[in-house]
Amino acid sequence: MKKTILLSLAASCCLFAWSSATILTTEPFDYDTGPLDNSSTSGTGQIGNWQLTPTNTGNATLSVADVTWATPTGYNFTPNSKGVGGVQNATGAFQLSTAIDFDADGELYFSFLYRRPSTAGSIGLISFNSGATEKARAFQTAGGGAVTGSIGDTLSGTGNTFPGTGDMFVVGRIVTSEEGEDTLALQITSSSGTVPATFAATTGTASAETTGSADWVYFWNFANADSPGAYFGEFRIGETYAAVIPEPRTYAALFGLLAIGFVFWRRRARL
After folding, report:
1. What's the pTM value of the predicted model, to 2 decimals?
2. What is the structure's pLDDT at 98?
3. If we measure between CA atoms, which residue out of 22, 50, 27, 28 comes closest to residue 220?
């Protein structure tokens, strides 16, 4: 009986290690409401404090607010009720512990929640930078409810429409190549939609040769007057699609195994 319990617990530990191994970075924006300033980063896979830009160590001008997120079906996770943005012309950046290497073959995914109050103008942009140099514009809003994804040393990319205004869940995929072109694609699901079981690009596709690496995540281009109503939430980077899709199945299995072990323990205790 003890062996059964130990096997259940061992399996649970292994499952937990497997489920978390592919998550590289998380930023839940778990800060006090108000100006972000030079707050120490609160997530994982980050270095140091928030700052104004990747090359300016001044205070980040982004603001943190309490946000009740509306999420699509398949986002089976209770998001942290926080968002960052909310100020016209605000900026903020944090440094990654592990840089994105565009000179090696690889694949990574990133995801975040996004609230857009209006289709007019530019309201929020996320870029992956090497210092002041952008290696990818991972998400750039534009007028008319459009979004652009760009990648490469010359930042080539295309723009397409996306689900209007309100809350949405964005997943991006970057495929890096040692010798060929690197690619970027975005999958955007409105809060009234359903998150696909596998990655399915809907917009923001781009392909171009990219060299070097990127170790900064930069939030900026809140240019429109409606920017005070725009926020980002629950940013994460992972090695797989599953790593950046909050879903309960892995953790349900984990707790299921723990429950089995507990039942066996109770039965043993009664003997």
Report:
1. 0.85
2. 95
3. 50
